[in-house]
Design a protein that fits this description.
Its main location: membrane. It is a single chain. With 168 residues, the chain is of the alpha+beta class. The chain is 44% helix and 26% strand. The strands form two sheets. A four-stranded antiparallel sheet has the order 3-2-1-5, covered by helices on one side. Strands 4-6-7-8 form a four-stranded antiparallel sheet, covered by helices on one side. The longest helix is centred in the first third of the chain and has 52 residues. The N and C termini lie far apart (86 Å). The mean pLDDT is 83.
């Protein structure tokens, strides 16, 4: 009987060792995997910053275009003069407001990580009841020095393009 039990124990311990070897990771495998993941992260994080910066540029561009299109449609709808101007009066980057006389129709938040400026002396835009305005050019610059130019035509159409005049 003792011998039968020993053979049974020997077979079952071999099965346990085989199951443990199949089901887990060794310390070496775990360390290699973690080091490969760390290398990939260090390569990917700088490019993620560029993606975030491009996203901020897209947001700044769309904020201005949305405000322009909204102001133009409200001017036509109300047959009144609708203005788009910096919220604080300090600059276009600090936020925009769309107004009819003293009534504020919409307020847009300030932009982060980018600078929006108007070329020339423009403190605001005014759309007439016919939906027309004076032509104007805006520059949007990132902290990295990339730039976009938005040209507003008198008809209210906005033309987009790149601009290389930003200083990082």
């Amino acid at each position: 009987m003792g011998r039968f039990t020993m053979v049974q124990f020997h077979r079952s311990s071999r099965a346990i060792r085989r199951t443990a070897a199949i089901g887990g990771f060794t310390l070496i495998e775990l360390l290699v995997t973690l080091s490969i993941a760390a290398i990939l992260l260090t390569l990917g994080v700088p490019s993620f910053r560029y993606v975030m910066e491009d996203s901020r540029m897209d947001k700044g561009q769309s904020s201005l275009i949305d405000a322009i299109q909204f102001a133009q449609s409200e001017a036509v709808k109300r047959n009144a003069v609708v203005a788009v101007a910096p919220s604080s009066g300090a600059g276009w980057t600090r936020g925009l407001s769309v107004t009819v006389g003293a009534e504020q129709l919409r307020s847009l938040d300030s932009l982060s990580g980018v600078t929006l400026s108007c070329v020339g002396d423009c403190t605001g835009l005014s759309f007439s009841g016919a939906g027309t305005t004076t032509a104007q050019t805006f520059h949007l610059c990132s902290n990295r020095g990339n730039g976009r130019q938005m040209t507003l035509y008198a008809t209210g159409k906005v033309k987009l393009g790149s601009w290389s005049g930003c200083n990082a």
